[in-house]
Amino acid sequence: MTYQATPRPFPDWPFDGIDDWRNAEQSRRDAYQQAERTAAAQTSPGMVGIPEFKFTSNGPWLVGTTEIEQALIFYEASPASLRAECEADELWVAWLAWLREARAHGGFTVS
User: Fold this and answer.
1) I want to staple 24 with a disulfide (CB 3.0 to 4.6 A). Which of 28, 53, 70, 75 is the partner?
2) Residues 65 and 103 sit within 8 Å (Cβ to Cβ)
3) CB 9 within 8 A of CB 42
4) Mapping DSSP to helix (H, G, I), strand (E, B) and coil, where does residue 15 land?
5) Cα distance between residue 61 and residue 54, in whole Å
6) Distances (CA, A) of 32 to 53, 58, 108, 110
7) Which domain of life is it from (predicted)?
8) Positive or negative CA dihedral for 41, 42, 48, 49?
9) Other CB atoms within 10 Å distance of the CB of residue 42
């Protein structure tokens, strides 16, 4: 459901301070926010599921519906005996339910 990967860095803060941010043209602020959002939503090409780095740091990370869907498909394709063993744990069952709900609402943020 997850995979190991190394995250790419977030963009450097291109402003000289909060006053520069406040006085900057909206297009400049928008460009930075888009670059930050792209970094927060990053995945590793060719990998399936959710990158583990999104669970091992405070991000901010965005976990999208495709990542969640891939993770759930991978889980559902695992052997029935493994799923039964995992689903004996109420916390695991709650996690799966939460993932399904998050998928229906466009994903989730880790921060």
Assistant:
1) 28
2) yes
3) no
4) coil
5) 6
6) 22, 20, 21, 20
7) Bacteria
8) negative
9) 17
Query: pLDDT (tens digit, 9 = 90+) per residue, 18-76?
Result: 999 999 999 999 999 999 999 999 999 999 999 999 999 888 999 999 999 999 999 99
Spatial separation of the C-alpha atoms in residues 93 and 98, rounded to whole Å: 9
The contacts of residue 105 (CB under 8 Å, 6+ apart) are: none
Residue type present at position 94: A
Residue extents of the structural domains in the chain = 11-41, 42-110
In angstroms, rounded to a whole number, what is the distance separating the alpha carbons of residues 33 and 41? 12
Nearest to 92 by CA among 69, 75, 111: 75
Separate counts of helices (H) and strands (E) for the chain: 5, 4
pTM for the complete prediction? Answer: 0.89
Q: How far apart are alpha carbons 99 and 65 in whole angstroms? A: 9
Whole-number Å distance between alpha carbons of 50 and 42? 10
Q: Please, where are the H alpha helices in the chain?
A: 18-23, 26-40, 65-76, 80-86, 90-104
